[in-house]
Amino acid sequence: GEARGVHFPLTCLKEYHENPTTKENNLEGRGIPAGAMSAAHIIWAAGQQHNINPQTLIVLLQKEQALVTDDWPWPIQFRAATGYGCPDTAPCDAEYYGFYNQVQNADRQFRSYFNNPNSFNHVPFQNNFVRWHPNAACGGSQVFIENRATAGLYNYTPYQPNGTALSNIYGA
Questions:
Q1: Which residues is 107 bridged to in the sheet?
Q2: What are phi and psi of 160, to 5 degrees?
Q3: What rounded mean pLDDT belongs to the chain?
Q4: Nearest by Cα to 75 from 13, 14, 3, 22
Q5: 164, 152, 166: which is closest to 119 by C-alpha?
Q6: Spatial contact of 155 and 128, defined as CB atoms under 8 Å apart
C-alpha cells in the first residue's frame, strides 16, 4: 500500500470520522478533526433527513465498496463510498467525492426512488427485467422485486450477476 501512496494505519468504517463542511477526516492515522461526525452518525443523520432506513445505506456501502466488512479499507473506498456519481462506463465525478457527500447524495437519490417508484426502470412488487452487464447484448433475466428498498438498489445499480459470476465469486 505504501508503494501506491496509501499511508498506514488504515481506518475501518466503525472508526471513521469526517467534518461535513471541511471534508477533513481521520484516514491514514490522522486525528479526528474538529466538528467531525462518525460514519454511524453520518449514516443515521442522512436516513433521518430523507426518511430512509439507514440499513439501506449500510447495504449500499457494502455493495459498492465492501466498507462494512473490510478491515483494511483504502482511502479511495471512502472517497466513492456509495458509488454516487460513479457511472459504470466512466470515471467517478470528483464533485461527489467524500464519505459524507456520498452518503447524502445516495440517500437523496433513494428518497426519489421511494417517492416515485413507478418512474424508474425497476418497479417494486412486480417482475422486472434486470440486465447482467451494462452492455445490453449480454442479456438479463426477470427478477421479482419484493419491496421499494430492493427496487431502489436495482435502480441505483441496474445489474445482477449471472450464473457464471455467481459460481466463481472470487475468481476472474
A1: none
A2: -135, 155
A3: 93
A4: 13
A5: 152
A6: no
